[in-house]
Amino acid sequence: MEITPERDRMSNLNARQRLRLISPSPDNPLATLADAVRAGLTARPKQLPCRFFYDAQGSALFEEICSVPEYYLPRAERQILESHAQEIVELFDGRFTLVELGCGNAVKTRLLIQAAWAKRDRLLYIPVDISPAMLEKTCLALLGDFPGLEILAVAGDYEAGLACLKIACEGPKLILWLGSNIGNFDRAEAEAFLARVRQSMTPADRFLVGIDLRKAPSILEAAYDDAAGVTARFNLNILGRINRELDGHFDLGAFQHRAVYNDEIGRIEMYLVSRSRQPVGIAKLGLEISFDAGETIHTENSYKYSPDEIAALAAASGFTVGPQWFDAQHLFCTTIFKPQ
């Protein structure tokens, strides 16, 4: 069938009719970039929340990271989902709602949607993402490929997404938290967040979590400091975002990316390191921030888990561990958490 401009326009209109996009008001007092920058760069030690990586440029850079050879996580998780998507959706006998916390481009989610599609003519998908531009792009692409799909998209953080689940869903839910996003929470925060997810679930619901496993420091450090420097540009982009949105005066060349594995705690730590003693003005905040040579801005943690730590996390947050799947090299684990 020939795709004419008019047919393409009508297809796009049809997709938009099946998309509802909502943007809840944030409850977090540091939810805006300006508030987080003021608080984080005047703190000791300096820090910036990793959720602000994901403006349009940051989201594009993260997609590029997922293609570098050192960053094994997306390939390992995709291998698992390619092998077990049908098994995962068959945890539900009939229709269910698919919910995703932090959908990004939903490339891996497509595998689950396709598997669900094999036996169901309709599916409600509720993606949650902090980047409205990425969210709309992802949703329109999915709607163009799956004509029976309906989407309620939530442009906000995880807490906003959980609040929407209480009013938007009927019947069982499969909640996805892929990409080892759990690693951005420290262990106490992860337990508390899983407990809040548990409160939003019924006994029939299931929570599918992608979790990166503990492994050799050399593998982990290479994954977060690739030879092509893509992760470095991704990390530095948060300073570029401050320049663009808050009239900051960061010289990105005056900072360098650092990623180290803390084996005792079991986490990768990412920093931006000032190459020299320097002041940096941020005009819209009326701030001038002083940096010493070698001073760091802590931008991200990524916690890694052992199987025993996964089981302990489940028990502490009101879940039992259901089926688990591993990639061929046992680098990554995808786990079903079942409400107790």
In short:
The protein is α/β, with parallel strands linked by helices and 340 residues long.
Could you characterize the architecture of this molecule?
The chain is built from eleven helices and 14 strands. It is of the alpha/beta class. The strands form three sheets. The chain has an eight-stranded mixed sheet with strand order 1-5-4-3-6-7-14-13, with helices on both faces. A four-stranded mixed sheet has the order 2-12-9-8. Strands 10-11 form a two-stranded antiparallel sheet. α3 (56-65) packs antiparallel against α10 and α4 (73-89) packs parallel to α5.
What tags apply to this protein structure?
11 helices; 340 residues; eight-stranded mixed beta sheet; globular; 14 strands; 2 domains; disordered N terminus; alpha/beta
The CATH architecture term of the largest domain is 3-Layer(aba) Sandwich
Looking at how many chains there are and whether they match, the oligomeric state comes to single chain
The biggest beta sheet reads: 8 strands, mixed
Distance between the termini: 51 Å
Number of strands: 14
Task: Flag low-confidence runs.
Answer: 1-13
CATH superfamily of the largest domain, please? Vaccinia Virus protein VP39
Radius of gyration: 21 Å
The third-level CATH topology of the largest domain is: Rossmann fold
Shape label? globular
